[in-house]
Amino acid sequence: MKRKILIIAVATALGAGSALAAPPPGKGGGGGEEETLGNNLSVPTLFVGTGPALRIPCANTPKAPGWDGIAAWYPYEDDLYWLQKSVATWSATCANGSPNMDVSADWGDNLTGDGRLSAGRPIRVEMRLSSTASETTGVSFPITKLTPDVEDRLATYGTNGATTLPSFAVYEEGAQLTIARCVGDDCSKLESPPIYNGPMGGEVNSTGAVVYGYNWGIKNTGTPANGKYRLTFTPRTAHIVHVADTKASICDYSKCTYVDIVVGSAGGGKPGGGGGKPPGAGGGKPR
Fold first, then answer.
1. Beta bridge partners of 209
2. Each residue of 28-67: pLDDT tens digit?
3. Mind spelling out the 3-state secondary structure of 42-111?
4. Residue 252 DSSP SS3
5. How far is CA 32 from CA 29, 35, 191, 202, 224, in A?
6. Is residue 280 included in any domain, yes or no?
7. Does residue 46 form part of some domain?
8. 250 near 182, Cβ under 8 Å?
C-alpha cells in the first residue's frame, strides 16, 4: 500500500561543504531567470563548457545517495526513497564532453504530444540532448514520481538508490532558441523579426536530467497569441543527427532542429502542441 508519510531523518553531522557545491556553475531555468541551485544529478551527463548548477561537484565517479547530511526518506510501495529536493546528495556519472558531438534531440512532450496549447498562457519550451554513441554509458540513479496523482510540478520525486547504465545526456553552453510566427500553414515563410531569438539556458529538472528550458510568455516575451509557430533549437557546435519526435525535423547539415506548433484560442486550443507538463516540470521522455 502506498503511504504518504514523510519521515525526516537527521544525521549527526551535516555535510555542508558538499551539499551546496555547484560546479559547473551556471544559470537555471533559461530565458534570463535567476540562478538557482540544481537538483541532484540522476542522469549521466557530458558537459561542454559551463552547465547549470549542481548540488555536488561534477566527477567521473558517480556518488550514491547516503547519510552525509539531512536525508528525507519517503516510504513508497514497500521501499524507501531519498527525495530529489532534500539536502541528501547523489550524482550520476558526470564528465567533460567535446565539441562537435553527434546528438539526438528530444523536444518537450507538451510540444509534440496530442494535447492542446492555448493562447494567453505561458508555454514551456524544453529540449534534451543525448549522445548517439551507444557504446558510451554512465551510471544513473533513476527517479520515481512518488505522488502519481499530484500535478507534476508539485509532485514528490526520489530515488531508491538503484542504478542503470543509459547513454549520456549532453549539455553544451551557448545553445539558441528562436520562436517565430509562421506565414501560412506550411511555415515556408516566417514573420520577421522573430518573437524570441536568444539563449536557451540549462537546469536540472525534477527527474534529475539536465535540460534546456525557456518559459515563453513569462518575462521576455508576451503570452502566445493564436496562430502557428516554428520553434528552432540550435546548439553551439553539436550535430543533431536524430530527433526523438516524429513531429520534429532536422535542419540542413544537422545544425539545428525545429518543430511547428499550433496555439489555439484560450480555453480550447487546437491540436498540434500538447497540454503535458507545466512550467518547470521537465520535458522529453524519461530515460
1. none
2. 333 433 334 457 899 999 999 988 888 888 888 999 987 6
3. CCCEEEECCCCCCCCCCCCCCECCCCCCEEEEEEECCEEEEECCCCCCCECCEEECCCCCEEEEEECHHH
4. helix
5. 8, 9, 24, 11, 18
6. no
7. yes
8. no
* Domain total of the chain: 1
> Domain range spanning residue 127?
7-271
Residue 115: phi, psi to the nearest 5?
A: -80, -160
Kindly report, residue by residue over 148-169, the tens digit of the pLDDT: 999 888 899 999 999 999 999 9
Say how many C-beta atoms besides its own lie within 10 A of residue 102's C-beta. 14
CA distance 213 to 155: 19
- Quote the pLDDT of residue 73: 80
Identity of residue 208: G
- Is pLDDT above 90 for 195? yes
Burial class from Cβ neighbours inside 10 Å (0-12, 13-18, 19+) for residue 61 reads exposed
Residue 282 lies in a domain: no
Triad 187, 172, 113: Cα angle to 5°: 40
Greatest CA span in the chain, whole angstroms?
64
Least confident piece of the model among 7-11, 180-184, 280-284: 7-11
- Residue 283 placed within a domain: no
Q: Please tell me whether residue 121 adopts helix, strand or coil conformation.
A: coil
Nearest to 211 by CA among 175, 180, 240, 239: 175
Cα gap 168→149, rounded to integer Å:
30
